[in-house]
């Protein structure tokens, strides 16, 4: 398990799946805002890749997020779009509703940065989020991510086009921040 200060990132366990499905992916509004495509229900037993992890996939790594204190499941996190030529990847995360606003998201981003920069040797990490997702923007900026641009009207979310913000962090910036 990869440990942050409050959370750990570990492999997906079979009994994480019903909780993630019910609390994250059955939420139409939350899913529509966090996912790249339209909401659709996930059947129990489905092999949907957001829930059932393919350990052999080269382009992405999925984690379950647990509290270090007690080991309870609190969310899901991933490094995706891993590009070993440009040495870049994207970060994604979703905390269970009861686990939000406790600093866990910030710690997940920090731990994913360690995974991306130290374990995988990447040079750039990137986050895209809706421009009104203030918690995600703060969790990224708390870790030194820089707003690089606005993708105007790039996300179709429940009947309207919303802007997305693109944030990036380079390994040398991350190292300088870590030493500061
Ligand atoms: C976005 C998300 C991952 C952030 O995780 P979190 O554990 O709630 O975040 P933290 O507790 O670390 O808080 C991060 C910052 O956001 C702020 N914040 C938290 N909830 C907020 C809210 N609803 N509105 C505004 N700011 C908020 C916190 O005060 C904190 O700011 P600070 O560090 O300046 O004090 C989480 O809220 C979540 O899972 N949301 C739904 C799914 C989602 O949006 N995923 C991201 C898709 S790109």
TrEMBL record:
<dbReference type="InterPro" id="IPR051908">
    <property type="entry name" value="Ribosomal_N-acetyltransferase"/>
</dbReference>
<dbReference type="GO" id="GO:0005737">
    <property type="term" value="C:cytoplasm"/>
</dbReference>
<dbReference type="InterPro" id="IPR000182">
    <property type="entry name" value="GNAT_dom"/>
</dbReference>
<dbReference type="GO" id="GO:0008999">
    <property type="term" value="F:protein-N-terminal-alanine acetyltransferase activity"/>
</dbReference>
<dbReference type="GO" id="GO:1990189">
    <property type="term" value="F:protein N-terminal-serine acetyltransferase activity"/>
</dbReference>
<dbReference type="InterPro" id="IPR016181">
    <property type="entry name" value="Acyl_CoA_acyltransferase"/>
</dbReference>
<protein>
    <submittedName>
        <fullName>N-acetyltransferase</fullName>
    </submittedName>
</protein>
<dbReference type="Pfam" id="PF13302">
    <property type="entry name" value="Acetyltransf_3"/>
</dbReference>
<keyword id="KW-0808">Transferase</keyword>
<feature type="domain" description="N-acetyltransferase">
    <location>
        <begin position="7"/>
        <end position="168"/>
    </location>
</feature>
């Amino acid at each position: 398990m990869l440990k942050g200060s409050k959370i750990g990132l570990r492999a997906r366990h079979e009994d994480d799946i019903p909780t993630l499905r019910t609390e994250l992916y059955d939420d139409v509004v939350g899913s529509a805002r966090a996912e790249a495509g339209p909401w659709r229900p996930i059947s129990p037993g489905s092999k949907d890749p957001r829930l059932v992890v393919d350990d052999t996939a080269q382009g992405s790594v999925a984690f379950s997020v647990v509290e270090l204190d007690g080991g309870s499941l609190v969310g899901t996190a991933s490094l995706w779009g891993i590009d070993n030529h440009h040495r870049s990847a994207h970060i994604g995360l979703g905390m269970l509703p009861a686990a939000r606003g406790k600093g866990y998201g910030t710690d997940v981003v920090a731990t994913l940065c360690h995974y991306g920069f130290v374990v995988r040797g990447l040079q750039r990490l990137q986050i895209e989020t809706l421009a009104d997702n203030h918690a995600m923007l703060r969790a990224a900026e708390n870790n030194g991510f820089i707003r690089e641009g606005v993708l105007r009207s790039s996300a179709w979310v429940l009947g309207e086009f919303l802007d997305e913000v693109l944030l990036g962090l380079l390994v040398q910036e991350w190292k300088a921040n870590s030493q500061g």
